[in-house]
Amino acid sequence: MSNIIYSRINTMKLVQQVRYLTKYQSQRRVVVSGLGVVSPIGTGTKIVWDNLLKGHCGIVCLQEEDYKKLPCRIAGLISKQDDDVQKALSKANLKSMAPATCLALVATAEALVDAKWFPECDREKEMTGVALGMGMIDLKDVCDTNEALKIGYNKVSPFFVPRILPNMAAGQISIKYGFRGPNHSVSTACATGAHSIGDAYRFIKYGDADVMVCGGAESCISPLAIAGFCRLRALSTSFNDEPEKASRPFDQKRDGFVMGEGAAVLVLEEYEHALRRNAKIYAEILGYGLSGDGSHITAPREDGSGAMLSMGRALQDANIRKNEITYVNAHATSTPIGDGIESTAIKKLFGGHSSKISVSSTKGAHGHLLGAAGNLEAVFTILACQHGVIPPTLNLENPVDDLNYVANVPEKWQTERRVALKNSFGFGGTNATLCIAQI
Question: pTM for the full model?
Answer without folding.
Answer: 0.94
